[in-house]
Specification:
- The chain has 424 residues and is mostly beta strands.
- It has one domain (2-423): Beta Barrel (Porin).
- The protein has helices at residues 2-20, 154-159; strands spanning 30-32, 35-48, 69-84, 89-98, 107-118, 126-133, 164-172, 183-190, 204-215, 218-232, 237-242, 245-250, 258-274, 277-292, 311-326, 332-342, 366-376, 381-392, 415-423.
- Strands 2-3-4-5-6-7-8-9-10-13-14-15-16-17-18-19 form a 16-stranded antiparallel beta barrel.
- A hairpin with a 7-residue loop joins strand 5 (107-118) and strand 6.
- The longest helix is centred in the first third of the chain and has 19 residues, at 2-20.
Length: 424
Amino acid sequence: MVKETISLLLALFSILLISAQDPNVQHVIKKSGKLKVTGYMQPQWQIGEEAASLQVGKQKQDDEKDELFNRVGIRRGRIKFFYDDGSLGSGGFQFNVTDKPGLEGAQVQIKELYLNVKAPWNKESSFQAGIFNRPFGFEVNYSSSSIESPERSRITTSLLPDECDLGGMIVLTPGANSPFHFLTLQGGFFAGNGINPETDNRKDFIGQLVASKSIGEVHMGLGVSYYNGGVFQTNDSVYTINGNAFSLDVDAANKGEYSKREYIGFDAQLKLRSSLGLTQLRGEYIFGTQPGTSSSSCSPNRSKLPIPEDTYIRLFSGGYVMLTHDIGKSPFSAVLKYEIYDPNSSVSGDDIGTNGSFTGKADIKYHTLGAGVYWQITPDIRTTLYYDMNSNETSSRLSSTNSINNYSSDRNDNVLTMRVQYKF
């Protein structure tokens, strides 16, 4: 079954490559005065082990008996309209077409919708409002069409889903003649609910200080980010971690209040161009306090408040390190990425799931080692072959006859992704 699946996958991948090189495929960049239209599409095929979570199609069905399962779909399909009046004002409007797991067919979303007003004194500082990338870390603001791994790291997608949020921020950059021109300070207030409509009265603050400098063939970047917000409590029961167990506080006054959501992040990037090619090394580390539920440590990104559910407040930590290398002057590049996400750094191993601790699978730590190659066929066409080796923390107290829910051993949830991207 494994050989048959991989053979079928390679056949489809070859067909996609031939189609991508068809001379009838043309650039579709349109400029009309001050309006620019850009976009990209990412058809892909994924093979996952029995407990894997794939990013396209439905997850494994109960009647699928094979250990491996595969799905083909459109991971992202985006088109963006950007208008710049050439003076102080600009704005962007981006749609996203996606085939997310659990959806009945493809879904069209508004990914970005924002205006930007530049400062008249240097046209580098600005005010921005609408739906746009959160000013936190590096990976959130790195385009999905440029990122070398198929997905952002688990900690990024868990804490900052959708990358964008609804809000307003100020960007301060010293003028070109300033000795501090390499610094950018940005911050503002956001709804805290991703690209979905706001559901509560609390606004979250996000701020970031970035330093960026190039010296010859070397480029360096550093950043520190801060997130201070809250998550609406829909029930009167709040669990707070105390030692290696949760303590329960039941109080009618808890309902309608906000539990603290606080992140501190550090990021760094290094680029070096040599005769061997372009080498890039970057990483991030994030820690803080995250409100969630008994089954999930993810941040809210819902179009409405959930039915009443208890709040679990966890201390978390995690990050990633990624190394990419363009192989000489060839169109091939290699990628290696290691990431870790510990949603509850206060408890580990067999302490998870202990009777009376109220801990469970949402407190499991994950490690992922990813490796792959991509082929830049043309400046606009890129193919990617990437393998994620996922490892989870284990606890003898989280045993199950269902392999997907069994955390007494490392689950079989590795994923192979093959993707073709066309960018215009």
